[in-house]
Design brief:
- The chain has 182 residues and is an all-beta fold.
- Strand 15 and strand 16 form a beta hairpin.
- Helices cover 0% and strands 54% of the residues.
Length: 182
């Protein structure tokens, strides 16, 4: 198992938002940290009220978005949706899509967005507050909120863990863990 602490993540500040990245992303290049199995990106964003990314294009990946705090307004081709805490959405961008994520609320929005390799099935498994779940390996675990324990290793909010084997994940009473089998 390899643990990466929240303070080790790459950070980018934009207009009304902050992004924290578990893997190489944008101007943050680390040849030894490009992906984990079929997981290509695991990015946490905090958007202030009124902030967003504007329409942007993705192609050739699956995008999974999970809201941790606040409300995310998602606008895509011919559709719109508002997601609240604990809600998630998966989009296939095989043929290419344009979409926007933004915060139309009055409180900060915090969400995680993961990019998945097409044809690979690392699907999100959420471990709810106070719950314990077994996650098959290889596993990637992100402490989305609060304190999470993974086979005896304590993760604080924003910490992540990579394991080649299956793991048991326990979320404290105020925590949520985001887990992928990679």
């Amino acid at each position: 198992m390899t643990t990466h602490r929240a303070e080790e993540r790459f950070v980018t500040h934009g207009d009304g938002w902050v992004g924290r990245f578990c893997f190489s992303y944008g101007e943050h290049y680390d040849a030894g940290n490009l992906r984990y199995g079929g997981l290509l990106a695991c990015n946490e964003f905090v958007l202030e009220p009124g902030a967003g990314f504007g329409l942007h294009r993705h192609a050739g990946i699956d995008v999974v978005t999970v809201v941790l705090e606040g409300e995310l307004t998602h606008v895509g081709p011919g559709e719109g949706a508002v997601l609240g805490p604990g809600e998630s959405r998966r989009l296939s961008t095989e043929g290419g899509i344009e979409h926007d994520e933004r915060n139309e609320g009055v409180v900060p929005l915090r969400f995680v967005q993961a990019w998945l390799e097409p044809g690979h099935e690392p699907w999100l498994q959420l471990v709810a507050p106070g719950a314990t779940e077994r996650v098959e390996g290889p596993a990637f675990v992100l402490a989305g909120t609060g304190r999470v324990e993974v086979d005896g290793e304590v993760l604080e909010q924003g910490d992540s863990l990579r394991s080649d084997a299956a793991v048991t994940v326990t979320a404290s009473a105020a925590a949520t863990a985001l887990c992928w089998t990679c």
